[in-house]
Protein backbone atom coordinates (compact mmCIF):
# COMPACT_ATOMS: atom_id res chain seq x y z
CA UNK A 1 0.00 0.00 0.00
CA UNK A 2 2.89 2.35 0.83
CA UNK A 3 3.90 2.42 -2.82
CA UNK A 4 0.66 3.96 -4.01
CA UNK A 5 0.44 6.58 -1.29
CA UNK A 6 4.00 7.82 -1.79
CA UNK A 7 4.84 10.18 -4.64
CA UNK A 8 7.95 9.48 -6.72
CA UNK A 9 11.25 10.72 -5.27
CA UNK A 10 12.14 14.17 -6.53
CA UNK A 11 8.54 15.13 -7.33
CA UNK A 12 6.33 17.45 -5.33
CA UNK A 13 2.59 17.92 -5.04
CA UNK A 14 1.12 21.38 -5.23
CA UNK A 15 -1.85 21.16 -2.88
CA UNK A 16 -5.09 23.22 -3.03
CA UNK A 17 -3.92 25.37 -0.12
CA UNK A 18 -0.72 26.45 -1.87
CA UNK A 19 -1.58 26.55 -5.58
CA UNK A 20 -2.51 30.24 -5.32
CA UNK A 21 1.21 31.00 -4.88
CA UNK A 22 1.95 29.30 -8.20
CA UNK A 23 -0.97 30.99 -9.92
CA UNK A 24 0.16 34.39 -8.70
CA UNK A 25 3.65 33.91 -10.11
CA UNK A 26 2.33 32.36 -13.33
CA UNK A 27 -0.11 35.26 -13.84
CA UNK A 28 2.73 37.74 -13.65
CA UNK A 29 4.76 35.65 -16.09
CA UNK A 30 1.88 35.51 -18.56
CA UNK A 31 1.20 39.24 -18.25
CA UNK A 32 4.83 40.20 -18.75
CA UNK A 33 5.16 37.80 -21.70
CA UNK A 34 2.10 39.40 -23.26
CA UNK A 35 3.38 42.89 -22.82
CA UNK A 36 6.56 41.90 -24.65
CA UNK A 37 4.42 40.52 -27.50
CA UNK A 38 4.83 36.80 -26.76
CA UNK A 39 2.09 34.17 -27.17
CA UNK A 40 1.90 30.83 -25.44
CA UNK A 41 3.10 27.58 -26.99
CA UNK A 42 2.18 24.17 -25.52
CA UNK A 43 3.99 21.08 -26.69
CA UNK A 44 3.77 17.42 -25.61
CA UNK A 45 5.51 16.19 -22.47
CA UNK A 46 7.46 13.61 -24.49
CA UNK A 47 9.37 13.78 -27.75
CA UNK A 48 11.59 11.48 -29.80
CA UNK A 49 14.78 10.97 -27.80
CA UNK A 50 16.83 12.05 -30.80
CA UNK A 51 15.37 15.56 -30.62
CA UNK A 52 17.07 16.19 -27.27
CA UNK A 53 20.27 14.40 -28.27
CA UNK A 54 20.55 16.68 -31.28
CA UNK A 55 19.49 19.95 -29.70
CA UNK A 56 20.53 19.82 -26.05
CA UNK A 57 23.67 17.98 -27.14
CA UNK A 58 24.94 14.49 -26.43
CA UNK A 59 27.94 15.64 -24.40
CA UNK A 60 25.81 17.53 -21.86
CA UNK A 61 24.94 16.36 -18.35
CA UNK A 62 21.27 16.52 -19.30
CA UNK A 63 21.61 14.04 -22.15
CA UNK A 64 24.39 11.91 -20.67
CA UNK A 65 22.95 11.49 -17.19
CA UNK A 66 19.61 13.10 -16.58
CA UNK A 67 17.03 12.14 -19.19
CA UNK A 68 13.94 10.04 -18.53
CA UNK A 69 14.15 7.88 -21.62
CA UNK A 70 12.08 4.79 -22.29
CA UNK A 71 11.07 2.49 -25.09
CA UNK A 72 7.38 2.49 -25.97
CA UNK A 73 5.32 -0.61 -26.67
CA UNK A 74 5.83 0.20 -30.34
CA UNK A 75 9.62 0.04 -29.87
CA UNK A 76 10.29 3.79 -30.19
CA UNK A 77 12.67 5.62 -27.88
CA UNK A 78 10.95 8.62 -26.31
CA UNK A 79 12.09 11.05 -23.60
CA UNK A 80 10.21 13.22 -21.12
CA UNK A 81 11.19 16.80 -21.90
CA UNK A 82 14.16 17.91 -19.80
CA UNK A 83 13.67 21.53 -20.96
CA UNK A 84 11.29 23.56 -23.08
CA UNK A 85 13.31 24.89 -26.00
CA UNK A 86 13.73 21.71 -28.07
CA UNK A 87 10.00 20.95 -28.23
CA UNK A 88 9.13 24.54 -29.11
CA UNK A 89 11.74 24.61 -31.89
CA UNK A 90 10.54 21.24 -33.21
CA UNK A 91 6.90 22.41 -33.27
CA UNK A 92 7.87 25.63 -35.01
CA UNK A 93 9.64 23.68 -37.75
CA UNK A 94 7.01 20.98 -38.08
CA UNK A 95 4.17 23.46 -38.55
CA UNK A 96 6.08 25.95 -40.69
CA UNK A 97 5.17 28.70 -38.22
CA UNK A 98 7.96 30.82 -39.71
CA UNK A 99 5.88 31.19 -42.89
CA UNK A 100 3.91 33.83 -40.98
CA UNK A 101 7.10 35.90 -40.82
CA UNK A 102 9.70 36.70 -38.24
CA UNK A 103 10.13 37.26 -35.41
CA UNK A 104 8.21 34.45 -33.77
CA UNK A 105 7.86 35.06 -30.05
CA UNK A 106 6.53 32.27 -27.86
CA UNK A 107 6.44 31.55 -24.15
CA UNK A 108 5.75 28.36 -22.22
CA UNK A 109 4.89 27.30 -18.70
CA UNK A 110 5.69 23.65 -18.41
CA UNK A 111 6.90 20.72 -16.33
CA UNK A 112 10.40 19.31 -17.02
CA UNK A 113 12.01 16.02 -16.04
CA UNK A 114 15.62 15.34 -15.14
CA UNK A 115 17.00 12.36 -13.25
CA UNK A 116 19.10 14.34 -10.78
CA UNK A 117 19.93 14.01 -7.12
CA UNK A 118 16.98 15.69 -5.40
CA UNK A 119 17.90 18.51 -3.01
CA UNK A 120 16.68 21.99 -2.18
CA UNK A 121 15.91 23.70 -5.49
CA UNK A 122 16.69 20.57 -7.49
CA UNK A 123 13.94 18.12 -8.31
CA UNK A 124 13.26 15.39 -10.81
CA UNK A 125 10.02 16.96 -11.89
CA UNK A 126 10.24 20.74 -11.88
CA UNK A 127 8.58 23.61 -13.70
CA UNK A 128 9.90 26.22 -16.05
CA UNK A 129 8.63 29.41 -17.52
CA UNK A 130 10.45 30.14 -20.73
CA UNK A 131 10.50 32.61 -23.59
CA UNK A 132 11.67 31.85 -27.13
CA UNK A 133 12.38 34.15 -30.06
CA UNK A 134 13.06 32.86 -33.58
CA UNK A 135 14.36 34.87 -36.51
CA UNK A 136 15.93 37.78 -34.59
CA UNK A 137 19.65 38.37 -35.21
CA UNK A 138 19.75 41.85 -33.64
CA UNK A 139 21.29 42.43 -30.24
CA UNK A 140 18.11 44.30 -29.39
CA UNK A 141 16.47 40.88 -29.24
CA UNK A 142 19.00 39.68 -26.65
CA UNK A 143 18.36 42.80 -24.60
CA UNK A 144 14.59 42.44 -24.98
CA UNK A 145 14.61 38.87 -23.70
CA UNK A 146 16.84 39.74 -20.74
CA UNK A 147 14.62 42.74 -19.94
CA UNK A 148 11.54 40.50 -20.08
CA UNK A 149 13.03 38.09 -17.51
CA UNK A 150 14.13 41.03 -15.40
CA UNK A 151 10.64 42.55 -15.52
CA UNK A 152 9.18 39.41 -13.95
CA UNK A 153 11.56 39.60 -10.99
CA UNK A 154 10.85 43.29 -10.77
CA UNK A 155 7.06 42.82 -10.69
CA UNK A 156 7.43 40.18 -8.01
CA UNK A 157 9.56 42.51 -5.92
CA UNK A 158 12.58 40.16 -5.86
CA UNK A 159 15.79 41.76 -4.59
CA UNK A 160 19.52 40.93 -4.64
CA UNK A 161 19.46 39.06 -7.91
CA UNK A 162 22.66 39.24 -9.96
CA UNK A 163 22.42 39.28 -13.71
CA UNK A 164 25.56 37.58 -15.00
CA UNK A 165 26.40 37.97 -18.64
CA UNK A 166 28.88 36.40 -21.03
CA UNK A 167 29.45 35.77 -24.72
CA UNK A 168 30.58 32.32 -25.82
CA UNK A 169 31.24 33.23 -29.45
CA UNK A 170 29.94 31.67 -32.63
CA UNK A 171 30.86 28.81 -34.93
CA UNK A 172 33.53 31.04 -36.50
CA UNK A 173 35.47 31.89 -33.34
CA UNK A 174 34.63 28.92 -31.12
CA UNK A 175 37.10 26.40 -32.71
CA UNK A 176 40.04 28.59 -31.70
CA UNK A 177 38.75 28.73 -28.13
CA UNK A 178 38.10 24.97 -28.11
CA UNK A 179 41.68 24.41 -29.14
CA UNK A 180 43.00 26.62 -26.33
CA UNK A 181 40.75 24.88 -23.80
CA UNK A 182 41.78 21.47 -25.02
CA UNK A 183 45.42 22.28 -24.60
CA UNK A 184 44.81 23.62 -21.11
CA UNK A 185 42.72 20.64 -19.94
CA UNK A 186 45.13 18.15 -21.58
CA UNK A 187 47.76 19.46 -19.19
CA UNK A 188 45.50 18.61 -16.19
CA UNK A 189 44.17 15.39 -17.65
CA UNK A 190 45.01 13.13 -14.68
CA UNK A 191 42.72 15.04 -12.37
CA UNK A 192 39.60 15.37 -14.53
CA UNK A 193 36.55 13.19 -13.81
CA UNK A 194 35.71 10.43 -16.23
CA UNK A 195 32.84 12.30 -17.89
CA UNK A 196 35.08 15.30 -18.51
CA UNK A 197 37.83 13.10 -19.95
CA UNK A 198 35.35 11.85 -22.52
CA UNK A 199 34.40 15.48 -23.30
CA UNK A 200 37.98 16.60 -23.81
CA UNK A 201 38.09 15.80 -27.51
CA UNK A 202 34.50 16.32 -28.47
CA UNK A 203 33.44 19.36 -26.48
CA UNK A 204 35.97 20.79 -24.01
CA UNK A 205 33.68 23.71 -23.16
CA UNK A 206 31.39 21.27 -21.35
CA UNK A 207 34.15 20.74 -18.77
CA UNK A 208 33.63 24.35 -17.66
CA UNK A 209 30.11 23.33 -16.63
CA UNK A 210 31.12 20.23 -14.60
CA UNK A 211 29.84 20.28 -11.03
CA UNK A 212 32.62 18.09 -9.54
CA UNK A 213 34.71 20.25 -7.17
CA UNK A 214 38.05 19.16 -8.68
CA UNK A 215 36.96 19.84 -12.26
CA UNK A 216 35.44 23.22 -11.31
CA UNK A 217 38.66 24.22 -9.58
CA UNK A 218 40.67 23.32 -12.69
CA UNK A 219 38.07 25.07 -14.88
CA UNK A 220 38.35 28.28 -12.87
CA UNK A 221 41.89 28.79 -14.23
CA UNK A 222 41.04 27.90 -17.84
CA UNK A 223 41.48 30.36 -20.73
CA UNK A 224 38.66 32.92 -20.90
CA UNK A 225 36.27 32.81 -23.83
CA UNK A 226 36.01 36.61 -24.08
CA UNK A 227 39.69 36.69 -25.13
CA UNK A 228 38.84 34.56 -28.15
CA UNK A 229 35.57 35.90 -29.58
CA UNK A 230 35.62 37.40 -33.10
CA UNK A 231 34.89 41.00 -33.97
CA UNK A 232 31.25 40.36 -34.94
CA UNK A 233 30.62 38.61 -31.64
CA UNK A 234 32.38 41.41 -29.82
CA UNK A 235 30.20 44.05 -31.53
CA UNK A 236 27.08 42.04 -30.73
CA UNK A 237 28.12 41.72 -27.09
CA UNK A 238 28.80 45.45 -26.81
CA UNK A 239 25.35 46.09 -28.31
CA UNK A 240 23.62 43.92 -25.72
CA UNK A 241 25.49 45.62 -22.90
CA UNK A 242 24.67 49.12 -24.16
CA UNK A 243 20.93 48.27 -24.41
CA UNK A 244 20.91 46.92 -20.87
CA UNK A 245 22.63 50.06 -19.68
CA UNK A 246 20.02 52.15 -21.52
CA UNK A 247 17.27 50.18 -19.76
CA UNK A 248 18.96 50.75 -16.40
CA UNK A 249 19.57 47.04 -15.81
CA UNK A 250 22.71 46.26 -13.88
CA UNK A 251 24.79 43.26 -14.88
CA UNK A 252 28.13 41.61 -14.19
CA UNK A 253 30.34 40.01 -16.79
CA UNK A 254 31.04 36.43 -15.78
CA UNK A 255 33.35 34.73 -18.30
CA UNK A 256 32.83 31.31 -16.69
CA UNK A 257 29.15 31.02 -17.68
CA UNK A 258 28.82 28.61 -20.59
CA UNK A 259 25.32 27.21 -19.82
CA UNK A 260 24.53 23.53 -19.50
CA UNK A 261 23.13 22.95 -22.97
CA UNK A 262 25.05 22.71 -26.22
CA UNK A 263 22.94 24.91 -28.41
CA UNK A 264 24.09 28.29 -27.10
CA UNK A 265 26.04 30.83 -29.18
CA UNK A 266 27.12 34.38 -28.37
CA UNK A 267 25.09 35.84 -25.48
CA UNK A 268 24.55 33.69 -22.41
CA UNK A 269 23.16 34.91 -19.11
CA UNK A 270 21.98 33.81 -15.71
CA UNK A 271 20.04 35.46 -12.92
CA UNK A 272 21.65 34.22 -9.73
CA UNK A 273 20.49 34.56 -6.14
CA UNK A 274 22.67 34.07 -3.08
CA UNK A 275 19.62 33.74 -0.81
CA UNK A 276 18.54 30.18 -1.61
CA UNK A 277 21.65 28.08 -1.17
CA UNK A 278 23.69 26.19 -3.72
CA UNK A 279 20.98 26.03 -6.38
CA UNK A 280 21.01 29.78 -6.87
CA UNK A 281 20.47 30.06 -10.63
CA UNK A 282 16.84 31.04 -11.01
CA UNK A 283 16.94 31.77 -14.72
CA UNK A 284 19.33 30.91 -17.51
CA UNK A 285 19.28 31.64 -21.18
CA UNK A 286 20.96 33.10 -24.19
CA UNK A 287 21.23 32.95 -27.95
CA UNK A 288 21.16 29.73 -29.96
CA UNK A 289 21.68 30.68 -33.55
CA UNK A 290 22.60 27.17 -34.66
CA UNK A 291 19.70 25.25 -33.10
CA UNK A 292 17.10 25.36 -35.86
CA UNK A 293 19.68 24.39 -38.47
CA UNK A 294 20.80 21.52 -36.23
CA UNK A 295 17.20 20.29 -36.33
CA UNK A 296 17.10 20.41 -40.13
CA UNK A 297 15.68 23.92 -40.68
CA UNK A 298 17.07 27.01 -42.38
CA UNK A 299 19.62 29.00 -40.36
CA UNK A 300 17.44 30.97 -37.93
CA UNK A 301 18.95 33.24 -35.29
CA UNK A 302 17.11 32.39 -32.09
CA UNK A 303 17.29 32.98 -28.36
CA UNK A 304 15.44 32.57 -25.11
CA UNK A 305 15.60 31.59 -21.47
CA UNK A 306 14.22 29.13 -18.94
CA UNK A 307 13.20 30.19 -15.44
CA UNK A 308 12.83 27.63 -12.66
CA UNK A 309 9.52 28.24 -10.89
CA UNK A 310 10.37 26.18 -7.77
CA UNK A 311 13.57 28.16 -7.26
CA UNK A 312 11.71 31.41 -7.81
CA UNK A 313 9.16 30.45 -5.14
CA UNK A 314 11.99 29.53 -2.75
CA UNK A 315 13.43 32.97 -3.38
CA UNK A 316 10.10 34.70 -2.69
CA UNK A 317 9.89 32.74 0.57
CA UNK A 318 13.42 33.54 1.63
CA UNK A 319 12.83 37.25 0.95
CA UNK A 320 9.47 37.10 2.75
CA UNK A 321 7.70 38.50 -0.28
CA UNK A 322 3.98 38.32 0.39
CA UNK A 323 1.74 36.65 -2.10
CA UNK A 324 -1.86 37.88 -1.98
CA UNK A 325 -4.27 35.31 -0.51
CA UNK A 326 -6.86 33.96 -2.95
CA UNK A 327 -10.34 35.53 -2.74
CA UNK A 328 -12.71 34.09 -0.12
CA UNK A 329 -16.37 33.13 -0.25
CA UNK A 330 -18.68 36.13 -0.79
CA UNK A 331 -21.89 34.43 0.28
CA UNK A 332 -22.63 31.24 2.20
CA UNK A 333 -26.28 30.17 2.03
CA UNK A 334 -27.84 27.76 4.51
CA UNK A 335 -31.13 26.04 3.65
CA UNK A 336 -33.31 24.42 6.33
CA UNK A 337 -35.60 21.72 4.97
CA UNK A 338 -35.58 20.18 1.52
CA UNK A 339 -37.47 22.96 -0.25
CA UNK A 340 -35.35 25.69 1.33
CA UNK A 341 -32.17 23.79 0.46
CA UNK A 342 -33.21 23.79 -3.17
CA UNK A 343 -33.90 27.53 -3.00
CA UNK A 344 -30.47 28.01 -1.40
CA UNK A 345 -28.95 25.95 -4.20
CA UNK A 346 -30.69 28.13 -6.78
CA UNK A 347 -29.50 31.37 -5.14
CA UNK A 348 -25.95 30.06 -4.88
CA UNK A 349 -25.88 29.14 -8.57
CA UNK A 350 -27.24 32.55 -9.54
CA UNK A 351 -24.67 34.39 -7.45
CA UNK A 352 -21.89 32.30 -8.99
CA UNK A 353 -23.12 33.29 -12.44
CA UNK A 354 -22.30 36.89 -11.52
CA UNK A 355 -18.67 35.84 -10.98
CA UNK A 356 -18.96 36.04 -7.20
CA UNK A 357 -17.93 33.19 -4.93
CA UNK A 358 -20.87 31.42 -3.28
CA UNK A 359 -21.07 28.19 -1.36
CA UNK A 360 -23.56 25.99 0.39
CA UNK A 361 -23.55 22.71 2.26
CA UNK A 362 -22.63 19.55 0.33
CA UNK A 363 -21.56 17.35 3.23
CA UNK A 364 -24.78 17.27 5.29
CA UNK A 365 -23.77 19.54 8.19
CA UNK A 366 -26.25 20.82 10.78
CA UNK A 367 -27.18 24.48 10.67
CA UNK A 368 -24.85 25.27 13.57
CA UNK A 369 -21.98 23.39 11.98
CA UNK A 370 -22.61 25.24 8.72
CA UNK A 371 -22.41 28.58 10.54
CA UNK A 372 -19.07 27.51 12.00
CA UNK A 373 -17.91 26.38 8.59
CA UNK A 374 -18.92 29.70 6.98
CA UNK A 375 -16.82 31.38 9.67
CA UNK A 376 -13.88 29.07 9.06
CA UNK A 377 -13.77 29.75 5.32
CA UNK A 378 -14.07 33.47 6.16
CA UNK A 379 -17.27 33.95 4.13
CA UNK A 380 -18.10 37.64 3.90
CA UNK A 381 -21.89 37.22 4.09
CA UNK A 382 -24.22 34.41 5.07
CA UNK A 383 -27.92 33.85 4.75
CA UNK A 384 -30.31 31.33 6.29
CA UNK A 385 -33.38 30.21 4.35
CA UNK A 386 -36.20 28.37 6.17
CA UNK A 387 -40.00 28.02 5.71
CA UNK A 388 -40.70 31.64 6.79
CA UNK A 389 -38.15 33.00 4.36
CA UNK A 390 -39.55 30.91 1.56
CA UNK A 391 -42.99 32.27 2.24
CA UNK A 392 -42.03 35.93 2.49
CA UNK A 393 -39.37 35.59 -0.20
CA UNK A 394 -36.99 37.52 2.06
CA UNK A 395 -34.12 36.44 4.26
CA UNK A 396 -31.63 37.94 6.69
CA UNK A 397 -28.31 38.72 5.12
CA UNK A 398 -25.57 38.63 7.75
CA UNK A 399 -22.33 40.52 7.42
CA UNK A 400 -19.96 37.98 8.95
CA UNK A 401 -17.35 40.56 9.76
CA UNK A 402 -19.40 42.96 11.89
CA UNK A 403 -22.56 40.93 12.60
CA UNK A 404 -24.88 43.43 10.80
CA UNK A 405 -28.10 41.84 9.61
CA UNK A 406 -30.60 43.11 7.06
CA UNK A 407 -33.64 41.63 5.39
CA UNK A 408 -33.14 41.30 1.67
CA UNK A 409 -35.21 39.77 -1.12
CA UNK A 410 -34.43 36.15 -2.01
CA UNK A 411 -33.06 37.04 -5.36
CA UNK A 412 -29.55 36.26 -6.55
CA UNK A 413 -29.57 39.34 -8.80
CA UNK A 414 -30.23 41.50 -5.75
CA UNK A 415 -27.28 40.00 -3.88
CA UNK A 416 -24.89 40.64 -6.74
CA UNK A 417 -26.03 44.25 -7.02
CA UNK A 418 -25.90 44.70 -3.25
CA UNK A 419 -22.45 43.15 -3.17
CA UNK A 420 -21.12 45.49 -5.82
CA UNK A 421 -22.51 48.45 -3.90
CA UNK A 422 -20.97 47.03 -0.70
CA UNK A 423 -17.58 46.77 -2.38
CA UNK A 424 -18.00 50.31 -3.71
CA UNK A 425 -18.90 51.32 -0.16
CA UNK A 426 -22.32 52.86 -0.88
CA UNK A 427 -24.64 50.02 -0.01
CA UNK A 428 -26.69 51.92 2.58
CA UNK A 429 -28.04 54.11 -0.17
CA UNK A 430 -28.94 51.06 -2.19
CA UNK A 431 -30.77 49.49 0.71
CA UNK A 432 -32.70 52.70 1.34
CA UNK A 433 -33.67 52.91 -2.28
CA UNK A 434 -35.02 49.41 -2.17
CA UNK A 435 -37.08 50.36 0.86
CA UNK A 436 -36.27 47.26 2.82
CA UNK A 437 -37.35 46.52 6.36
CA UNK A 438 -34.64 46.46 8.98
P1 LIG B 1 21.81 23.88 -12.79
O1 LIG B 1 23.17 24.36 -13.16
O2 LIG B 1 21.30 24.42 -11.49
O3 LIG B 1 21.69 22.38 -12.89
P2 LIG B 1 20.86 24.12 -15.46
O4 LIG B 1 21.93 24.90 -16.14
O5 LIG B 1 20.85 22.65 -15.61
O6 LIG B 1 20.83 24.48 -13.89
P3 LIG B 1 18.80 25.08 -17.22
O7 LIG B 1 18.85 23.90 -18.09
O8 LIG B 1 19.38 26.34 -17.72
O9 LIG B 1 19.46 24.72 -15.79
O10 LIG B 1 17.31 25.37 -16.73
C1 LIG B 1 16.81 26.67 -16.51
C2 LIG B 1 16.37 26.85 -15.09
O11 LIG B 1 15.54 25.76 -14.67
C3 LIG B 1 17.50 26.83 -14.07
O12 LIG B 1 18.10 28.08 -13.98
C4 LIG B 1 16.77 26.47 -12.79
O13 LIG B 1 16.14 27.60 -12.24
C5 LIG B 1 15.72 25.51 -13.28
N1 LIG B 1 16.15 24.11 -13.07
C6 LIG B 1 16.99 23.36 -13.82
N2 LIG B 1 17.10 22.12 -13.33
C7 LIG B 1 16.27 22.06 -12.24
C8 LIG B 1 15.91 21.04 -11.31
N3 LIG B 1 16.39 19.83 -11.41
N4 LIG B 1 15.03 21.35 -10.32
C9 LIG B 1 14.51 22.60 -10.21
N5 LIG B 1 14.80 23.59 -11.06
C10 LIG B 1 15.67 23.35 -12.07
MG1 LIG C 1 21.44 21.05 -14.41
Structure description:
With about 450 residues, the protein is an alpha+beta fold. It contains 17 helices and 16 strands. The strands form three sheets. Strands 1-5-6-11-10-9-7-8 form an eight-stranded mixed sheet. Strand 9 and strand 10 (about 280-285) form a beta hairpin. About 40% of the residues are buried. Magnesium ion binds near residues 61 and 260.
Q: Strand pairing plus helix content: what structural class?
A: alpha+beta
Total helical segments: 17
Level-1 CATH class name of the largest domain: Alpha Beta
Termini separation: 59 Å
Q: Give me the CATH superfamily of the largest domain.
A: Bira Bifunctional Protein, Domain 2
Low-confidence stretches: none
Strand share of the residues?
Answer: 15-25%
| Helicity level | 25-40%
> Compute the gyration radius: what is it?
29 Å
Q: What name does CATH use for the topology of the largest domain?
A: BirA Bifunctional Protein, domain 2
Which kinds of small molecule does this entry bind, naming each only once? adenosine-5'-triphosphate, magnesium ion
Relevant terms:
438 residues, alpha+beta, BirA Bifunctional Protein, domain 2, Rossmann fold, 2 domains, eight-stranded mixed beta sheet, five-stranded mixed beta sheet, 16 strands, 39% helix, 20% strand, binds adenosine-5'-triphosphate, binds magnesium ion
